[in-house]
Specification:
Blueprint: E1 9-14, H1 17-28, E2 34-35, E3 41-45, E4 48-54, E5 64-69, H2 73-82, E6 91-92, E7 95-96, E8 101-103, E9 107-113, E10 119-125
């Protein structure tokens, strides 16, 4: 077996598929590459497949499920806030945000929740 060469798909839970697809379209400007009605939708994000699927467990993960690269985090956050996204603030050991942004030197992160309560990340800079 060699999974290193296999296409992988990230799984993104939704308790309401129609609401989630609207949120991803209206807030992030994403259009599904494939749709399966109430069974979900597949998004092709720069070569990474993401399957939005129905489950009662949507929004229960306390960690980032999907992260997007950003060339200009401040501008992206302004636009996303204008579309209704609410960025999360953290004050934890090793993680403190100011106006939704954690600054790790050459790397800046921000997080928001989608319509289903899933945590999404936005990252500017190189690791």
């Amino acid at each position: 077996m060699n999974f290193a060469a296999s296409q992988a798909t990230a799984m993104l839970p939704a308790s309401d598929i129609a609401r989630a697809k609207r949120w991803y379209a209206d807030t992030l400007g994403l259009t599904p590459a494939e749709e399966f009605g109430e069974m979900g939708a597949v998004y092709d994000l720069g070569g990474t497949r993401v399957f939005l699927y129905p489950t009662q467990f949507a929004g229960t993960a306390g960690h980032t499920l999907l992260s997007f690269d950003s060339a200009d985090l401040a501008a992206d956050m302004r636009e996303l806030r204008g579309r209704g996204a609410v960025f999360l603030d953290y004050d934890l050991p090793g993680l403190k945000t100011v106006d939704g942004v954690a600054d790790f030197g050459g790397l800046r992160n921000a997080w928001c929740k989608d319509s289903e309560g899933n945590i999404l990340g936005f990252v500017e800079g190189e690791m």
